[in-house]
Design brief:
By secondary structure, the chain is an alpha+beta fold. It has three helices and six strands; from the N terminus they run βαβαβαβββ. It has one domain.
């Protein structure tokens, strides 16, 4: 049986202050700035942008961390600072560290910052759609 080492950890945040606090704490455990990526996503519906409160409820910040050897610490830091990977906007999915639309007809994701290359490997193994 092959084993795969996963060193990429992802956290989904609603509040920028929580994401930034997690990033500061990740740096304190010697995870370098070059190992941390912050991306902001805003979901816009096909009907238009809607109210500002709706815009805020559809905004998520994704922190991607290459936590080689410190994965459990990184997950703990992100969770303790408000990361909730189940808290993604309706009509989206978290795939390989990025939010993507699960229904292209009703949603358009507008990432606030560019995303980097992402691995096809998942921290939790194969995606459900890839399983036999």
């Amino acid at each position: 049986m092959n084993t795969v080492d996963y060193s990429h950890v992802v956290g989904v945040f609603r509040e920028r202050s929580n994401a930034e606090r997690a990033i500061d704490k990740l740096k304190r455990i010697d995870i370098g700035e070059h190992q941390i990526q912050l991306n902001e996503y805003n979901l816009q519906t096909a009907e238009g942008i809607g109210s500002s409160s709706r815009q805020e409820s559809n905004k998520r910040l994704i922190v991607n961390v290459d936590a080689d050897g410190k994965e459990q610490e990184a997950v703990g830091i992100m969770v303790n600072n408000g990361a909730n990977n189940a808290d993604i906007p309706p009509g989206t999915e978290l795939v390989h560290g990025s939010l993507v639309s699960s229904n292209s007809e009703s949603a358009d994701l507008n990432p606030g910052l560019p995303t980097g290359e992402s691995s096809s490997d998942s921290f939790f193994g194969k995606n459900v759609s890839e399983r036999p």
